[in-house]
Write a structure and sequence with these properties.
The chain is mainly β. It has no helices and 18 strands. It has a 7-stranded parallel sheet with strand order 1-3-6-9-12-15-18, with no helix packed on it. The chain has a 6-stranded parallel sheet with strand order 2-5-8-11-14-17, with no helix packed on it.
Length: 118
């Protein structure tokens, strides 16, 4: 299941499945998302809760992680700041990435591989 929310909309404490958050209003979230979180279209979120899956920060979105990401966090054209915990890799595919020295990343912090041609 995929659920789509506009920023500024109150979010339930627990969201099952994947969630797409779109902007432009900023929001904070302290609950649990059982799937992946996609931030896009000028979304701005401060995440104090938990995402069981992966986080995808797409073009023009801004995400601050103070909670926990269960798998990978990938920024591709947006802004990602990590102060909390990522249990997988943090992948920079373009955009702005900041990982605080107090953050926990259980995988690697790396640039995305460019697509192979030919």
């Amino acid at each position: 299941m995929v659920r789509i929310f506009r920023g500024g909309t109150p979010l339930p404490d627990e969201l099952e499945g994947n969630v797409i958050l779109i902007g432009p209003e900023a929001c904070a979230y302290e609950g649990l998302i059982t799937g992946d979180l996609f931030a896009r279209n000028r979304a701005r979120i401060e995440l104090h809760g938990n995402v069981a899956g992966s986080l995808f920060v797409e073009r023009t979105a801004e995400v601050v992680v103070r909670g926990t990401i269960g798998r990978n966090a990938k920024v591709s054209g947006g802004d990602l700041k990590v102060y909390g915990q990522v249990n997988g890799d943090v992948i920079d595919a373009g955009g702005t990435l900041y990982v605080d020295e107090g953050a926990t990343v259980r995988g690697t912090i790396r640039k995305a591989e460019p697509p192979q041609t030919g």
